[in-house]
Design goal:
By secondary structure, the protein is an all-alpha fold. 77% of the residues lie in helices and 0% in strands. It is globular, with a radius of gyration of 21 Å.
Length: 460
């Protein structure tokens, strides 16, 4: 009997499982370890493929600025490129509003397969767009359209993948298993960064400008096929199967208003937690390579290699940090990350600005290890904020609103702040402000480690 079948059977016998009831009110769901491993692998590998596609844009931003936004000012080129980057985040809430409720109605697995297809198509299309020199203003217009397709599809990705793993994982191992989602993200970033670094080292500037930049985007086609295959082989989660069993037919549509106003406190906490998570995430993984090159005039290849090494370090630590959240709780680990960014952002950036390879590496490594406090905790902490019947929808809305307003705009805002003030310490101040907001959210959140998800019976 599969995990989904077991969960559905238990839920049909115990209607109270749909509410946030005491832990002993329903028999525990017996998870199938093989199914759990498959679910984690597919979500993590799919996420890696998504973020390879999405992250490459950041790593090759300087070249894209020259291809699509010709201008006499390198800063104007970079701002235009990051503007297109940020535009994708403006449609993420719309994607969350569409895909999240859909995932609560038709199932997590089907929606995750759909987001994979759309992301691969949007990224592959970027690799086919002619340059500004060839088709003029239509080049940046088509780039923007492709970015909007990417952003729309990504609106349903993270919330769906984290929900998928959380609803499969046993209560006492949810932190460890959830941490592999961000392990996949880092692997995707490393794949993208490694490929860009290799091309930058091997190709001349002329070749990189004329055709080399297209290679990472064109790889999205076959990667999307692999990701779709992995996700189509998955079964639906036990928690959603239980909801289907109770409904006896198709899941009734939950009004969007209930997903928002009915979950307003959890949504506010979600926005605060995602803010500190994504501002620091995009600052380190997306913005820092361009910061080293354009603002500090650091050698492009060496800058990317240092960031690549930091991400590899984060991957090594990630599963251990996830297991730690199962032992000591999500709140202490997230709080430690917030305190660390508040106290160490300025010293870390001063080290980076010192310019030597050792100083840059040490400063970025400090920020990377602090970021692990969030990457290891959030995939298990965020789904636990919401009950099963609205989990995908409410989490998609809260997550994507926060990412769109604060995370995805980080490179654009920080670049503009530096340009307006001339203060090269703006990245540190921005991370410190995010840490204050995240700390407030941690103060008010409830510990979820080792406990059943709201609306579900215990899982072991």
């Amino acid at each position: 009997m599969s995990a989904a079948t077991v969960a559905a059977h238990h839920s049909s016998d115990h209607p109270s499982a749909s509410r946030s009831a005491p832990h002993g009110s329903a028999p525990p769901t017996a998870t199938d370890p093989a199914l759990v491993r498959r679910a984690v692998k597919a979500a993590a590998l799919g996420n890696a493929m998504e973020w390879f596609d999405f992250g490459v844009y950041s790593y090759i931003a300087v070249t894209l600025g020259k291809v699509f936004f010709p201008s006499g000012s390198p800063t104007a080129q970079l701002l235009s490129t990051f503007g297109a980057f940020a535009a994708a985040f403006l449609v993420r809430p719309l994607g969350g509003v569409v895909f999240g409720p859909l995932g609560d109605r038709v199932g997590r697995q089907k929606v995750l397969a759909l987001t994979m297809i759309m992301m691969a198509v949007g990224t592959f299309a970027i690799g086919l767009i002619p340059s500004y020199a060839t088709i003029g203003v239509w080049a940046p217009v088509l780039l923007l359209v492709a970015r909007l397709v990417q952003g729309f599809s990504t609106g349903g990705e993270y919330a769906g993948a984290s929900t998928f793993i959380a609803e499969y994982a046993p209560d006492k191992r949810r932190g460890f298993l959830g941490s592999w989602l961000e392990f996949g993200t880092l692997a995707g970033y490393i794949g993208g960064a490694g490929l860009v670094t290799l091309m930058t080292a091997l190709l001349s500037d002329g070749d990189l400008m004329s055709w080399g930049w297209r290679i990472p985007f064109l790889i999205a086609g076959p990667m999307g096929v692999i990701g779709l295959y992995l996700r189509m082989r998955l079964e639906e989660t036990p928690a959603f199967a239980a909801e289907l069993e109770k409904a006896e037919t198709a899941r009734p549509k939950v009004p969007l208003r209930e997903m928002v106003t009915g979950q307003w406190r959890a949504l506010l906490l979600c926005v605060g937690l995602v803010l500190v998570f994504n501002v620091t995430d995009y600052m380190l993984l997306s913005y820092m390579p361009s910061y080293l090159t354009s603002e500090l005039e650091y050698d492009e290849t060496h800058g990317l290699l240092v960031v690549l090494a930091v991400m590899a370090l984060m991957m090594v630590v990630q599963p251990f940090a996830g297991a730690l959240t199962d032992r000591v709780g999500r709140r202490p680990v997230i709080a430690a990350g917030c305190a660390g960014f508040l106290l160490l952002s300025v010293p870390a950036l001063l080290l980076i600005r010192q310019g030597s390879l050792a100083a840059v590496g040490l400063g970025l490594a400090a920020l990377g290890l602090l970021l692990v406090c969030f990457t290891a905790s959030m995939p298990s902490a965020l789904p636990a904020l919401f009950p099963t019947r609205v989990r995908y929808g409410s989490l998609s809305i809260g997550f994507n609103v926060s990412v769109s307003l604060f995370g995805g705009t980080t490179p654009l805002v920080v670049t503009a702040l530096i340009g307006a003030t001339g203060n090269m310490m703006m990245p540190a101040y921005y991370m410190m402000a995010a840490a204050v907001v995240g700390g407030a959210a941690v103060w008010y959140m409830t510990e979820s480690a080792g406990r059943p998800l709201p609306g579900s019976p215990p899982s072991r």
